[in-house]
Amino acid sequence: MNIDFNQNYFELFGLPLRFDIDKKQLHAAQLKLQSEFHPDRFVNADDQEKRLAVQQASYINEAYETLKHPVKRARYMLQTRGLELNDDNETTSDTSFLMEQIELREEMDQCKSCQDPLRCCDHITGKLDQRSKEYAAQFVKLFEQGELELARQVTRKMQFVDRILEQIDEYQLELEDEL
Amino acid sequence: MALLQISEPGQTTAPHQRNYAAGIDLGTTNSLVAVNRSGKTDTLPDSEGRHLLPSVVHYAENGKILVGHAAQQKQASDPLNTISSVKRIMGRGIEDLKSLSNRLPYEFDGNSDTHVPRIHTRQGNVSAIEVSAEILKNLAHRAEQSLGEPLSGVVITVPAYFDDAQRQATRDAARLADLNVYRLLNEPTAAAVAYGLDQNPDGLIAIYDLGGGTFDISLLHLNKGVFEVLATGGDSALGGDDMDHAIAEWLIGQAGIGEVDALLFRQLMTAARQAKEALTDADSTRIELTLGEQDFSVEMDRATFNGLIDDLIKKTLMSCRRALRDAKIDKDEIDNVVMVGGSTRVPRVQQKVGEFFGCEPLTDLDPDRVVAIGAAIQADVLAGNKPDSDMLLLDVLPLSLCIETMGGLSEKIIARNTPIPVARAQEFTTFKDGQTAMAIHVVQGERELVSDCRSLAHFELRGIPPMAAGAARIKVTYQVDADGLLSVTAEEVHSGVKSDIVIKPSYGLTDQEIETMLRDSMSHAKEDIEARMLAEQQVEARRVIEALDSALAQDGHELLTDEEYANIQKVRNELEKQIDVANSEQLKKAIKAVEAASEGYVEKRMNASVRQVLSGKNIDQVDV
User: Which domain holds residue A156?
Assistant: First the structure.
């Protein structure tokens, strides 16, 4: 039994193509596939079967990682409808969104000079998590309505928020190293 | 001869087709091998009952290579030809070594093309890979002696934090030792398996592994027998040796020692290790040193020792914090903390780790043996001996894989903690008309500058079809397998032309070099094969004699005439005499002779046992 590389990731895991997925179901489906296709199941097989096992397990992992992360999942859903996000030359003209980004970044910089920087970081993280949820809700609605271009713009914003969260993470790491 | 051992129908003890597998913990300070025998998995002792094999190899004057305790005995008297802690050098370059430890006593020859440091010994220059291969051979031999069969495959454990070069070096060592590697398994995962935590329905497990030379923290998620590594962290140059170092430095200060040569250094380290071990149970210990003419003696209490190692413990806890952050989990979500590695016997370590995670760490199993046991359990599953087991170990990439871009910056291709196996593709284009080659430098690490990461290899793509600048689209695919090892393929997208890839590993051996080493070891191969066959026949001979003796004791006099009995005894005694003196071929013949002589006896036993089953039953009560 081989994996059909032509099916989309949702089909691979037997899930409906939608943003709100059951993470437990996704995880269980991934484990079920891996327990069948992981290279560990083929240690006594011939070289070709071994190679195929590595490829199939890689494909399952790639699919799982994509669907697990909200931003990657949103991007992938757009991709199934023929819409790509190009990382290099995407810009946004939403000025209120841009303003918010700038404010958040300033707040983060101020963090560094305040009394309790770790707590300050937590505060910003809380705000950003809230934003993520709002954007996700917007994405669900827009995608269902077939407003794909608007859904794409929301995905961009989700990605922005994600990057700031990553930066805060890195900054917290530095802080911990100093402590 | 199986017929001599008659068992009840349905309770046959003879296994069908069994693959013999072993788990090997290739450690910095000590190495171990474990196998599964009759359903029980445990580490194997040597002929003197010692389970730990010191990871020490001695290159002797008579051309022999000593491994383990025998090599360790030479450490003080002949330090330059006695290699220890070689795991620290695996997959490392000469530059790394300088920063690794300022007091490695060996003389290195770093002028080879591939920058694999070679240690100068009286038997020539040897790489860490060859030294490790000697240790592996020794352990594999121990397992084969015990099983009486050649090994079909092994699982070798590595620190979860090992990068590609270090993993590759470990695989190369196994290849030199002529072992079939089922899988490189992360040490912490092996420890969790050994504790049988896979029997729990689910949970979050932290594995705190402080060995002789490496520290690892791994966070595992367990779900219905499937282990998933959520995050790994640690330091591949931190461990119990550093505790010894700290004590040695303290001793140097206390005794006012100026110059430290290799010999004195060994003495200091040995005294330091003894003091550390004594302080596990005692509150205070006396350290005695012989410094040239005069003796030096000093008392060390546990508080002083704790003071020396607290920084080291703090470093390990920082790594724990980072791993928790990577996995996005909180300290109090951890259900179990497993302690691995001899250094976790230090009470201060147990105390601090317990405080950090807020729970009592698991210390029931011998922290030195737990990894090898786990590896053997997985080896048995991978060998196909447990078809019902659904144990599956899913791993992640320990360090990000990156390529060098303009200006010496690194660009991440695959981020650390990505589940493996994994494949990622990337497209490049040519920037000159007619360009047919290009170079890719792959590094591993988290830093932005390539110079701060570990260089893995330079890939040179050749045979790109000549096109106008920017027209060629070269798709490069990075594939990481289940062991965490990288391979690279490239193809021009329009033409489908595959590029030839020439790999220059930064710190590993080229295939050419390994082939040369394999050829060198071929000269010993014939002796090795004979030795192995002899060992197998010896085990077989003992088994035959044992089976025969127990059968004869049971019904020998009953079923055989005195003459028949004496005849069988004679051939049996002949075989017994041969065991320790004959070569494998002679021994095989002697076994055959016993089998031939007892053929009639076997038949009689069969008939007798059938009669016994049938007696007292009507013919229609017998299942046919």
Answer: 95-178
ipTM exceeding cut-off 0.85 for this assembly? no
- Distances, alpha carbon B374 to alpha carbons B161, B180, B589, in Å: 18, 18, 40
Give yes or no: residues A117 and A44 share one domain.
no
Per-chain mean pLDDT for chain B: 84
The closest CB to that of A40, out of B321, B392, B418, belongs to B392
Supply the pLDDT for residue B11.
40
What CATH number does the domain containing A23 carry?
1.10.287.110
B87 assigned to active site: yes
Q: Are residues A133 and A170 in the same domain?
A: yes
Instruction: Report residue B292's pLDDT band, with 50, 70 and 90 as the boundaries.
Output: confident
Question: Considering only CB atoms, which chain A residues are within 8 Å of B387?
Answer: none
* Domain CATH code at residue A169: 1.20.1280.20
Q: Cβ–Cβ contacts within 10 Å for residue A40, how many?
A: 22
CA distance B428 to B474: 5
- Residue A76, in any domain of the structure: no
Instruction: Based on the fold, state whether residues A135 and A174 are members of the same structural domain.
Output: yes
Residues A99 and A151 in one domain: yes
Given a contact cutoff of 8 angstroms between Cβ atoms, the answer to whether B125 and B81 are in contact is: no
Ranking B38-47, B180-189, B535-544 by mean pLDDT, the lowest is B535-544
Option in B182, B325, B479 nearest A54 (CB): B479
- Domain co-membership, A63 together with A110: no
Give per-residue pLDDT as tens, B102-136.
556 677 775 555 567 888 888 888 899 999 999 99
Residue A171 and residue A104 share a domain: yes
Query: Does A90 fall in a domain?
Result: no
* Residue B577 appears among annotated catalytic residues: no
Average pLDDT over residues B365-385: 93
Token pair for residue B97?
Answer: 């070594």
Decide if pLDDT at B563 tops 80.
yes
The answer to whether B418 faces chain A, any CB pair under 8 Å, is yes
CA A72 to chain centre: 4
Instruction: Characterize B580-596 residue by residue with b for buried, 16 or more Cβ atoms within 10 angstroms of its Cβ, and e for exposed.
Output: eebebeebbebbebbbe
Catalytic-residue membership of B209: yes
The predicted model gives A75-99 an average pLDDT of 78
Pairwise CA distance, residues B571 & B310, whole Å: 67
A81 within some domain:
no
B247-288 pLDDT per residue, tens: 999 999 998 888 888 788 888 999 999 999 999 999 999 999
- Please state the domain count of chain A: 2
In terms of domains, do A174 and A127 share one? yes
Q: Which of B156, B392, B480, B488 to mutate to test the interface with A (most CBs of A within 10 A)?
A: B392
pTM of this structure: 0.71
Q: Is residue A26 part of a domain?
A: yes
Q: Which pLDDT does position B622 carry in this prediction? A: 46
Q: What angle do CA B160, B164, B170 make, to 5 degrees?
A: 75
Substitution target from A52, A58, A177, A179 for chain B, most B beta carbons within 10 A = A58
Catalytic residue list contains B25 = yes
